[in-house]
From TrEMBL:
The lineage of its organism: Bacteria, Pseudomonadati, Bacteroidota, Sphingobacteriia, Sphingobacteriales. Residues 10-216 form the CobQ/CobB/MinD/ParA nucleotide binding domain. It comes from Pedobacter chinensis. Gene3D superfamilies: P-loop containing nucleotide triphosphate hydrolases (3.40.50.300). GO terms for molecular function: ATP binding. It comes from the Bacteria. This is ParA family protein. InterPro entries: CobQ/CobB/MinD/ParA_Nub-bd_dom (IPR002586), DNA_Partitioning_ATPase (IPR050678), P-loop_NTPase (IPR027417).
Amino acid sequence: MNVKHKTVFIAFSSQKGGVGKSTFTTLAASTMHYRLGYNVAVFDADFPQHSLLKMKDRDLKMVMENEALKKQAYNQFMTINKKAYEIIQHRADSVLEAAQEYVNASPVPIDAVFFDLPGTVNTPGILKALAGMHHIFTPITADRVVMESTLVFTQLMKDIIMKEGETSIQTINLFWNQVDGRESTPLYDVYNTLIHQLGISLMQNQVKNSTRFRKESEVNSKVVFRSTLMPPDERLMKTCQLDLFMDEFLKIIQL
């Protein structure tokens, strides 16, 4: 492997469950690997759920049972000539070393490694793992509990780890997820002002609320959204503005 090749370490991380970190890990990894030509890998260190490994097992079963998706998967493989990206289970306390070994040993240059990490700072090794990321993305929703835990967590990363510790972190980016157009705009304005006052980076593009974020492929479905084997359908991406989010995401990680 070319040692000069740039590999970025990325985590969608949050101290609050249910805001979409595993979902966005899958959406971003699948878009980059299957549609945009990048080579990615995923390390699932979210013990004990390991939800991404379980998702891949479900995706494989679904493709085998769904003729439309089976045909799509076959055509995709014939077109891009790439296997599915690997999802490797590992402990948080040594996941950085394992990821670097994987990158060094890979027969193809790896552009990005995504890490699905535990959602609590009490997990052994979690702060070390986060400090080893190049970019951290944190989904937020207009909920007081979510905002309080997220801002405390982000301040910890920004003011302590980035300033005082040895770290690889280049950016920490909050972004609005599950945005409902019917919700009160002033509520977002208040939170946006607070985030700006704290000096925390907030992405411009918001991801709109969609039931697709909570659904995987169904038996009779002809399109996919959240899948480890195929990229999200482009029309569905536009519906929730995930396409605009990915454009901004790629500019931030500079790939």
